[in-house]
Amino acid sequence: MAGEQERRRDERLSLDADVEFRRKREAHYTVRMQDLTPHGCKIAPPERVDAGEMVWVQLPSLHSIVSRVKWTTGWQSGVEFEQPMHPAVFDMLAARLAPVEA
User: Fold this and answer.
1) Distance from first CA to last CA of the chain, Å, rounded?
2) Which of 22, 40, 67, 94 has its CA at a distance of 20 to 30 angstroms from the CA of residue 50?
3) What is the pLDDT at residue 9?
4) What is the CATH number of domain 10-97?
5) Rounded CA gap, 19 and 57, in Å?
6) CB-hemisphere CA count at 13 Å for 48?
7) What was the pLDDT predicted at 97?
């Protein structure tokens, strides 16, 4: 999507990792995270979430991050973190989660 690339603030880190996801007043469950930036991530929840919906995403070794669903297409959703990650925290996660190159 050309418009999505134009709006992107940061380069995304493509990955495939499990994160905890929770909707308001619901229990958390594990979902796949497919990319990450300091401002948000793309996840694959097992049920549809709507744009504007408040959700919580818990990345490995971090507390839950309050987020908003920005878009949903099929079984993928982009979420924006309420507060962007500190660059050092993002770099730590990137090093930990990035796929190992052969």
Assistant:
1) 30
2) 94
3) 61
4) 2.40.10.220
5) 7
6) 5
7) 84
32: tokens are 């796949």
C-alpha to C-alpha distance for 56 and 45, rounded to whole angstroms: 12
Q: What is the pLDDT of residues 29-74, one digit of tens each?
A: 999 999 999 999 999 998 899 999 999 999 988 899 999 999 999 9
- CA distances in angstroms from 35 to 25, 27, 48, 78, listed in the order given: 26, 23, 18, 9
Tell me the pLDDT tens digit for each residue of 69-86.
999 999 999 999 999 999
**CA distances from residue 102 to 18, 34, 98, 99 in whole angstroms, order as listed:** 22, 20, 12, 9
pLDDT at 6 over 70: no
Report yes or no: 76 and 45 within 8 Å, Cβ to Cβ: no
CB neighbourhood size of 77 (10 A)? 24
Domain boundaries, the chain: 10-97
Residue with tokens 């979902």: 31
